[in-house]
Amino acid sequence: MHNQIREEPLIEEAVHILLQAVTLQPDVENVRVKEALGRVTAEPIFAKRSMPPFPAAAMDGIAVNARDTYGATEESPLRLHGDQFVFINTGDPVPRRTNAVVMIEKVHVVDSHTVEITEPAVPWKHVRHTGEDIAKGEMLISACQSLRPADLGVLLAGGIQKVPVWHKPRVAVIPTGSEMVPPEQELAGGELPEFNSAVFEAYLKEWGAEPNVEQIVPDEPASLAKAVRQAAQTHDIVIINAGSSAGSKDFTPRVLKELGTVLVHGVAARPGKPVVLAVVDGTPVLGLPGYPVSAYLSLEWFALPLIRAWYNQPIAERETIHVQLTHPVQVKSGAEHFVRMRAGKVGGQMKAAPVSKGAGATLSLIRSDGWLRTSSGIRAGEQVPFVLSRSQNELQHQWLLTGNDDPLLDVWGSLLKQRSGRRLSRESTSRSEGIRAWARGECHVACILWSGEDEELSSLVAQEKPVQDWLLLKGFQRQQGWMKAGGYSRNGAGVRDAHHKDQTWVYVADVDGNEPKQASESDRRLKLPSLLKAAAAIAGGTADVGIGTQAAAKLAGLDFVPLYPARLDLLMTVSFYEKEGGRAMVEAFQSPGLNKRAMEWGGYNLNDVGSILLSGRGWEPGNR
Ligand SMILES: Nc1nc2c(c(=O)[nH]1)N[C@H]1C(S)=C(S)[C@@H](COP(=O)(O)OP(=O)(O)OC[C@H]3O[C@@H](n4cnc5c(N)ncnc54)[C@H](O)[C@@H]3O)O[C@H]1N2
Ligand code: MOO
Q1: What pLDDT score was predicted for residue 465?
Q2: Domain MoaB/Mog: where (predicted)?
């Protein structure tokens, strides 16, 4: 049986429908203040005592009665004797008959019974009155306040030991899918690791809920119905993941219709469309899509508003900045699109580009810096609002690299982060696209794979950027060759016979001129965004052979037939090299960590890594 997906409301409309349909009734519990961090107060809290609880010295010195000090001057210092003064330290109660403190720096101690002062004390100078900080009966914290570290201090100072807070909403998370197994388990044929619930659990905790992840439920309507019914009776919110779209085993909508009322099935958002919102026994039930990016986005769209409503708190808007698009954004009409992008400050301007979808859904999510929310296409060059998933500070200091791919570049990026604190955000494209992006000021550095003459490369760069403000930093050399599954290939063709008509050939997006030249070749050619993804595809049987590197072949467990060495260098402006990243980049290149990994993977040569190879001003003598 297939489910019909109905007309789709916008996210905000769906949230409204959900919140209208449920009554959230949090209980109050009293928790020890020391354990109340992040909890939300159910009532206003009033001080049970004053702080300080007595008049207290604000400085180290002597406590005096101001009257006894009148007339003291530089010219005629005044001596105080016996009970006219008391030595006192900050925080001590000031004795009853005194009303001021003279700082010890202004006191000349003659002997233990006699001191001399050179100016009179003003009444209540350096004395903190009872309740100066907190007065008994004063409101310390209002209702519906999330308790921060300093709030705990105020409560304890004000004599509060236990604080009434809203019970955390108990959220059941039910992973479903007969193919899903706990992530710790080795995968047998067709099995998939169930990891969304761990992500849900972490988000829910962060948002102030008490998640409870249940056992994985197989794709059987009766099992799912049982799990949901039980969860709805014992929890405040129930989340099912996944089985919410139109597949023959997507039972979530059907089961929810049987158990309660389905409010919404499908929202006008991509990704994240196949959401099911329902109410079972008065409990809100969210059926969220299985694809991780859709799952996490839709969790935030619907679970977060429920939790905030539970606590009667507004939703904190995510930080949004304005960025200039370096590439056009194309979207299908009829829904809002959440376009993941990466961003950085190049030439004083925040720029952003959509991350390639081929980068893998989960990884592209954590590698992107945020998203653009749009219902229509947008031209390159436009300023757009960008919702951050990383701190703005981190983005301001992030370096963008575009160009050819190599897994060792990630190791280098990690060393760079370790040494400079700055993140390297890398997108693999072809050499020519990399040079062009760099020349247009869309990234800081272009990564260039090259096996020809230096002069030729020089003129390639000069074509894109005639100014001479550039240099090429020497990266590493790597062995290129055929990558091929070990043993026997599907059709028995040998690796040297890569153009055999029955072979599927995988190629990495970064190799210029590898695109199919004739239509008849397209079905045999698969374009993938990185060497390791190409290698994984061969290992998985999607393709037979591909040009790659010794390291990529080794990491994927493939055979390798070496062909020729190629160099991977970094193109940057001289000013970037001198004033921004050059030094850190060279240091990371030359660090032992990179060499160690290169040796371990094999096929690399790191001689003269980090030296200046070419510059727009001509040959750089002594560096070659
Ligand atoms: N004919 C149609 N097919 C699909 C549609 C559609 O409208 N018509 N929608 C697509 C969209 S959009 C999405 S999103 C997916 C997800 O749909 P489901 O919610 O039904 O998800 P499943 O099919 O159950 O799972 C898909 C996939 O997600 C991963 N997954 C699921 N649960 C977990 C988990 N707990 N941890 C980690 N990963 C999980 C897993 O890779 C599943 O294979 O449907 C499209 N299809
Ligand atoms: O909308 Mo699905 O949620 O694209 O991945």
Answers
A1: 79
A2: 172-309
Lowest mean pLDDT among 74-78, 213-217, 245-249, 290-294: 245-249
pLDDT value at residue 62: 96
Domains in the chain (CATH in brackets) are: 11-25+168-310 (3.40.980.10), 28-51+132-166 (3.90.105.10), 56-128 (2.170.190.11), 318-396 (2.40.340.10), 405-624 (3.40.190)
Q: Which residues contact 178 (CB under 8 A, 6 or more apart)?
A: 218, 219, 220, 249
- Evaluate if residue 60 carries a pLDDT over 60: yes
Pocket test for ligand 2, best of 291, 298, 301, 302 (most atoms within 8 A of CB): 291
Tens-digit pLDDT profile for residues 388-408? 999 999 999 999 999 999 999
- For the Cβ of 197 lying below 6 angstroms from any atom of ligand 1, the answer is yes
Query: Which ligand 2 atom is nearest residue 273's CA?
Result: 1
Q: For ligand 2, atom 4, which residue shows the shortest CA distance?
A: 271
Cα–Cα dist 246/230, whole Å = 25
Q: Say whether 236 sits in a helix, a strand or coil.
A: coil
Among the atoms of ligand 2, which is closest to the Cα of residue 361? 5
ipTM associated with this complex? 0.96
Query: Are the beta carbons of 476 and 609 closer than 8 angstroms?
Result: yes
291 in contact with ligand 1, CB cutoff 6 A: yes
The closest residue, in CA terms, to atom 20 on ligand 1 is 243
Q: Do the beta carbons of residue 247 and residue 314 sit within 8 Å?
A: no
Q: Degrees (nearest 5) of the Cα angle 438, 441, 443?
A: 60
Longest dimension (CA), the chain: 111
Q: Phi and psi at residue 352, in whole multiples of 5°? A: -145, 150
- Predicted TM-score (pTM) of this structure: 0.90
Average pLDDT rounded to a whole number, residues 231-259? 92
For residue 529, the Cα-to-chain-centroid distance in whole angstroms is 22
In the reported structure, the alpha carbon of residue 338 is separated from the centroid of ligand 2 by a whole-number distance in angstroms of 10
Q: Over the stretch 282-334, which tens digit does the pLDDT of each residue have? A: 999 999 999 999 999 999 999 999 999 999 999 999 999 999 999 999 998 88
Note the pLDDT of residue 512.
54
Mutate to test the pocket of ligand 1, among 265, 291, 294 (most ligand atoms within 8 A of CB): 291
Q: Locate 542 and state its tokens.
A: 């999607």
Distance, in Å, from the CA atom of 401 to the CA atom of 406, rounded to the nearest integer, reads 12
What is the C-alpha separation between 561 and 495, in angstroms, rounded?
Answer: 8
Please choose, from the candidates 535, 538, 539, the residue with its C-alpha nearest in 3D space to the C-alpha of residue 551: 535
Choose one of 8, 11, 275, 294 to mutate for the ligand 2 pocket test, by most ligand atoms within 8 angstroms of C-beta: 294
Looking from the CA of residue 291, the nearest atom of ligand 2 is: 5
Per-residue model confidence as pLDDT tens digits over 456-470: 888 888 888 777 789
Ligand 2 centroid from CA 588, angstroms: 39
Nearest CA to ligand 1 atom 12: 273
Q: Is 289 in the pocket of ligand 2 (CB under 6 A)?
A: yes
Pick the ligand that lies closest to the CA of residue 190: 1
Which residue has tokens 């026997």?
488
Q: Under DSSP, is residue 302 helix (H, G, I), strand (E, B) or coil?
A: helix
3-state secondary structure 194-209: CCHHHHHHHHHHHCCC
Calpha distance 340→362 (Å, rounded): 11
Candidate of 196, 265, 273, 301 to mutate for ligand 2, largest count of ligand atoms within 8 Å of Cβ: 273
